[in-house]
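To assess whether the prediction recovers the assembly geometry, we first specified each molecular entity separately, as shown.
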Amino acid sequence: MPAKASRAAFGEALLELAATDPRLVTVDADLSKSTMTAAFAKAYPDRAFNVGIAESNLLGIGAGLALTGRVPFVCSFACFLAGRFETIRVSIAYTRAGVKLVGTHAGIAIGEDGYSQMGLEDIACIRALPNIPVVQPADEVETKQAVAYAVEHDGPFYLRLTRQALEPVSPPGYRFRLGKAVVLRPGADVAILATGGTVANSLEAARRLAADGIGVEVVNVASIKPLDEELILRSAGKTGHVVTVEDHSLAGGLGGAVAELLGEALPTPLKRLGVQGFGESGPAQGLYAKHGLDPAGIASSIVKFLDR
Amino acid sequence: MAPSDIKQVEAIARACRVQIIRMLAHAGSGHPGGSLSVIDLLTTLFVNRLRIDPGRPDWPDRDRVVLSKGHCVPALYCVMAKAGFLPEAELLTLRKLGSRLQGHPDRAALPGIEAATGSLGQGLSLSLGMALGLRLAGSPARVYCIMGDGETQEGQVWEAAMAGPKLGQPTHPLDNLCVILDYNGIQLDGFVRKIMDLEPVVEKWRSFGWPVLEIDGHEVRQIDKALDQAAATRGTPTFIVAHTVKGKGVSFMENDPEWHGKAPKPGEAIRAIREILAVSEAAWDEYLKTDHATAEIVAELQRLGRA
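The predicted structure of the complete assembly is given in tokenized form:
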């Protein structure tokens, strides 16, 4: 299976599901070519709505559609959705409107467009709201399952997707379930909890460290909220060292969520890898190297963390 | 609407005004000014017009009322109680710990509330989505969105204003949506025209493509006629500018920004109720001997004052 952007997998899943589920509609704010709902709009012009560049209105219209029996996928860049936090907070979360928020272009991996287009604080913002699960799939298979799951989930849902292609990482027969993480590779010395676009790099780092005799467990945490507390505590207890890896601000993302859990339930040495400060323009690979999110950066952080 | 029906709506609106004052006095906080300016609009909607069934608050084909100016929810609770969505006695739980009657509407707390509002400027977008969703479902239900004047200073309102006449066209135009502006001219910090003037209101909405009707928002006959006209309009949602008086019915609250968000003390509440019922101070004691329900409310407020 070739690498595929999770936004592209989302667009395909939507088309597939829409064929048998007339409740599905999309609402976009002039980014449907980027959020990959354009194919759905072409196939179902009566069920695809483009409100122009007006994200607050986008969110409110989505909420109204959800409250009248539709299953609306409300799509924009992750940063533009989270930027209208107050509308998500009241019209969707507090109203209990079953909007499926789809934030694409997550993280510094979007590269050249620079900081203003990068979703870097969306997990932190939306995670703070009661009632909205936060899910970031790591490859095509997981994305398609998460989209199907979101349709059936009673209530709002946040799906964080990437612009860049993602290598397949899910094990054969994998089923996405909310609140469940999956161990992709077992290891005894340190546990990497990774999400989204950084999962494949974490696996590669683990392979390199294995050659140096360091056993790295790699866990794909697609369900950032709710967390799979049981699995994470088991990995932390077994390895005694936890590293989180994400293409998101260091504040409040997966690393923050894991720190909250471990701090209360099982204090464990923790290293959070993510984005510091604002992002900037540049090739994605160069940005990942700069922020230590490429395999070499992850591996060297782990060596340092373990003091080997 | 027949003259007798108008009289009935007026009587219910008067009773709701009394309840609003009573509720706020017991809560010790809240927004009397805007609740009193919007109550005639809400009563005209709820009495014999809305397609609702209090026994089935989740009926898919029910009409929706989105009170975008959520701080005036005491007025909505009152008409909902009259319609049978909650017992009238529950009105006194407003703003109390554990109450279904939150200080601003909470859809999950009280069946019949259609949206959480109060973060101003969000209700119109929600209403557009509801109207579109109902059209897509082939439902005959209508959506009524009531906005405050001050809240139309929010940018999101103008995103929604731009979209309203265009969304769903041409197959699903939102002619099932009626927006009512409670234009009472006062917001929290003072007079709207001094803080950030909205004028020219009618021209603004017309230029965004809305048919606009202008009415006196306290005249039941005019409200009713405008709602009829909106319901008969095809191909586009309708915008009604309802000119109202903040604090309407209580002399010392009318047109005074102080009463935007301040609850009456028990003594003030009793005086307000007397004015709402149009009884002179001299005739008040005699009047209370004939109106036992009001006498009970007054006695209860007197006890509250002594407590």
